[in-house]
Amino acid sequence: MAKYSPRLKEMNLELVQTIAEHQLTEDRLNLQLTRLKLMYDFVSALNAAQTLNEIYQIALDGLCAALRINKAIVMVESAQGLKYEASMGVSNTYSQSIEIFFDDFYSDRPNQSNQSADLPKTFPHSATLPSDRQLQELFHQEKIGAWAIFPLDYELRHLGDIVACFDEPRQFTEEEVQLTQTIVTYIAIALTRKQAEQALKESQQFIQRIADTTPSILYIYDIEEGRNVYCNQAITHILGYTKLEVQVMGEQLLGTLLHPEDLDKISQHYNRIRKIQINQDINPAIALDKNADGLFLIEYRMRDIQGKWRWFYSQENIFLYDQNGYVKQVIGAASDITKLKEIENKLQSSLAEKEVLLREVHHRVKNNLSVVDSLLSMQTKYVKDAEALKSISDSQRRIHTMALIHEQLHQSQDFGKIDFCEYLQRLVNNLYSSNSDNINHVDLKTELNPVVLDIDMAVSMGLIVNELLTNAFKHAFPHQEQGLIAVKLYKSDGDRRLNLIICDDGVGMPAQINLQDTNSLGLRLVRILAQQLRANLKMSSAIGTSFHLTVDL
């Protein structure tokens, strides 16, 4: 029995060691499980945090528990530098002093901050006493023996720092370093996500405030599904429906709100847009609906909650394509133009009334001129003097010239302007026909380019043509020889100047005739009218007689 005793002792010892090792392994596994559970709870709490302040508090709790400390501060980067956000176990005075220190430190040594021993950029492996005397005094007042600054870095962005405070300097174990690195990484991720969420929320709120204060109805319409996706608060102000009521209408939206006469127009409008494919040129038929800015334009009527029809003017753009590359959704702004339409209708009615009145005025002026002409014709039966008869005949021709203007205006759609080319052709033909003695031996040639004149200029130009052309018919060919009279009308100097030429190849003007000083009533009238038009009038008798009138348009 004695000979087995050493062997039994050895086996007992091995057994005790094995049990101890198993126990140690089990303790380590339990510790790891505990830490994993704590880490799981920590990450879950971070993910469930609704605000940045909650994240700060969870971060402080997690880091302090991992390092077995009870004092820490969260500093976060802002546009003004590192700013205090939250703390645990330290006074407000200390927290504010740390913020001031960070601010002064980076302001005084902007190029040395990354190399500073007090504010390390790398992840800390120990807690140390800062070399700055002010900080040391502050640490002494707060009964802090050392600190470690854990940088909150994520995707090359420095979000801030967690300042952990210790009772005394110490070296961190490898396990503590790994644990704190994991905790700090999750904190940085949570901060990044929450900051992005807040920025997105603030951006959405900002956009929504703009949308809700816009007087126009902003909307997103899904052409493929035939329903409204989004609309702003203006739809309630204008039509009386809530946004929810509009959403509930679904595919019945257009049929419910649109005027029956506009339903087909809107359907065709969206069918054309629906056919547009991404990165392809727009069909010219569709492009007709677009303005210079590339927006689709359309007018239509919608019924408000009171049953009244309101006019809208929409500007739309492509918002979303489907998986096949065709337009799925459009975004638009619909402006209420009901009052403008009412004003437009009133103006159109008023304009129609004025057009009728103007047409009647021109008709009556023409009739009155015809009455004057008839009175003059009756007067000729009692006049025996040849000169008096000639004067009456000249006056009648002038009356015919003015009456022709009012006759054409009476038949025109534009009462302020007249097609002078058409008028001049009729006037020349009438004068040519009225001088029947010259028809057989005088040829008439006209070269008239299109031009539109206002009524005042047209009357003056017509009277000038009447006088010069009548003179040519009467005096250019006294012995009834063959000849040519030409009338030309054209623009020059980039359509800024109008030219009128009346010429003949007859005997020419007598040498003693001076256009500026003549006894001829007709030529005096031509000169006076030219002066009223501020026109330049030139006369030439080199070959026959030529009058060239130029006037600025």
TrEMBL record:
It comes from Pseudanabaena cinerea FACHB-1277. It comes from the Bacteria. SUPFAM superfamilies: ATPase domain of HSP90 chaperone/DNA topoisomerase II/histidine kinase (SSF55874), GAF domain-like (SSF55781), PYP-like sensor domain (PAS domain) (SSF55785). Residues 360-553 form the Histidine kinase domain. Keywords: ATP-binding, Kinase, Nucleotide-binding, Phosphoprotein, Transferase, Virulence. It holds the Pfam family HisKA_2. Residues 203-277 form the PAS domain. The keyword Transmembrane helix does not apply. One of its GO terms (molecular function) is protein histidine kinase activity. This is histidine kinase. It catalyses: ATP + protein L-histidine = ADP + protein N-phospho-L-histidine. Residues 296-349 form the PAC domain. Signal peptide: none annotated. Its EC number is 2.7.13.3.
